Amino acid sequence: MKDAFGTPQSLLILGGTSEIAMATARRLVARRTRKVWLAGRPSPALEKAAAQLRDMGADARTVPFDALDAESHTETIGGLLADNDIDMVLLAFGILGDQARDEDNPLAAVRVAQTNYTGAVSAGLICARALQAQGHGSLVVLSSVAGERARRSNFIYGSSKAGLDAFAQGLGDALHGTGVHVMVVRPGFVRSKMTAGLDEAPMATTPEAVAEAIETGLRRRSETVWVPGALRVVMSALRHVPRPVFRRLPV
């Protein structure tokens, strides 16, 4: 169970090699979290991530998980949750894709959508059902400000995050009053391996800053977290810009 400050004792990360997820795990392990499951495709990177957490004193284990293999989710993730009481699930997997390439390759665009949205719907529902059955827990979903309004430069990725964001909000409403807390996290541009080589957007942030915001959101039982917080005002304004004007903006 969580302590008085909202720190989970046990954590399951879907997308165990995510830099944001690992920054969050390190932050929580430094507080009180003692059991961590890192779910992802088996790889040296996944094992290295688990070893880092073990070096910090956590009981960290790896679990095979493929967002694109929805048929396996009930057995892998559902089975793990059925056998363990887990305080927090962090849904952190996703791919950025390549907008220019994906526009000319529909199958690549579909892979972005299936990973970021379809895979998240499958895994999210399985996790939500398990957390509801145990009567407590938090499901933290990494969304993006890219889902707030479609932009010419990344509308394939943005549309997948828009779907994920709407799904997570609806799931939070469905679970309201059950003891399960759903929190949607909307970072802006995050300096990470995924964005390496891209032009940095205004108000860029870091995995560590997102991790800090997640910890604060857990403590406050927030439903939506913006990183940095000022993006909430910026995106609220951008949502209402007329499309002819929006098309001319450098976004």
Automatic annotation (TrEMBL):
UniProt cross-references to InterPro entries, sorted A to Z: NAD(P)-bd_dom_sf (IPR036291), Sc_DH/Rdtase_CS (IPR020904), SDR_fam (IPR002347)
Keyword tags: Oxidoreductase
PROSITE patterns per the UniProt record, alphabetical: ADH_SHORT
PANTHER family, A to Z: 5-KETO-D-GLUCONATE 5-REDUCTASE (PTHR43669), DECAPRENYLPHOSPHORYL-2-KETO-BETA-D-ERYTHRO-PENTOSE REDUCTASE (PTHR43669:SF6)
Similarity comment: family membership: Belongs to the short-chain dehydrogenases/reductases (SDR) family.
UniProt protein name: Short-chain dehydrogenase
Species this chain originates from: Streptomyces lasiicapitis
UniProt lineage: Bacteria, Bacillati, Actinomycetota, Actinomycetes, Kitasatosporales
